[in-house]
Amino acid sequence: xxxxxxxxxxxxxxxxxxxxxxxxxxxxxxxxxxxxxxxxxxxxxxxxxxxxxxxxxxxxxxxxxxxxxxxxxxxxxxxxxxxxxxxxxxxxxxxxxxxxxxxxxxxxxxxxxxxxxxxxxxxxxxxxxxxxxxxxxxxxxxxxxxxxxxxxxxxxxxxxxxxxxxxxxxxxxxxxxxxxxxxxxxxxxxxxxxxxxxxxxxxxxxxxxxxxxxx
Length: 215
What we know:
The chain is of the alpha/beta class. It has a single domain (3-207), classed as Alpha-Beta Complex (Spore Coat Polysaccharide Biosynthesis Protein SpsA, Chain A), CATH 3.90.550.10. 38% of the residues lie in helices and 15% in strands. The chain has eight helices and seven strands; from the N terminus they run E-H-E-H-E-H-E-H-E-E-H-E-H-H-H. The chain has helices at residues 28-44, 59-68, 81-95, 113-123, 158-164, 176-179, 185-194, 198-204; strands spanning 3-8, 49-55, 71-73, 101-104, 128-132, 139-144, 168-169. A hairpin with a 6-residue loop joins strand 5 (128-132) and strand 6 (139-144). The longest helix has 17 residues, at 28-44.
């Protein structure tokens, strides 16, 4: 089974505000873009991924991610993360009605293609499934089989809300790179310890964070 992966990305100027203790206003937009670039590049390299659709209204992010091979979907609802994902899922379903769809966070800079493939292959066994984040509170991936709505419920306590929606929680080991999203400085350090992609490594080098390394 090959998936269409939908990646939501807010305007770079407003992205990653919780990294303010680690990165100043001038660096956060570049970090957010680097996270998304490494995430999309890793996803596009997966044999389980047919294509990637990024839902964003940010012109720079749109250009840079399209250059990697992603399809750009405008955030026409402009109503927040979950409406954006539902809109993008509907758009890609018009183009590929019989295909499965998975929503993937844009802030997975340590994402490894082999681990994402394992998660998507596991998700293919269920009508809807999700992967909790490293903190065990949120969600980094939500999937829906062909013909089923994604029903995204990202945000605070999304792990509980996705489970309550009927999605199956994927209990997988050794997929840390798919679970390690980055909201805080500690998250970024954890991602750096796993080994981030080249764009994040270059952007994070400007922060002088100990323990940085490339993927």
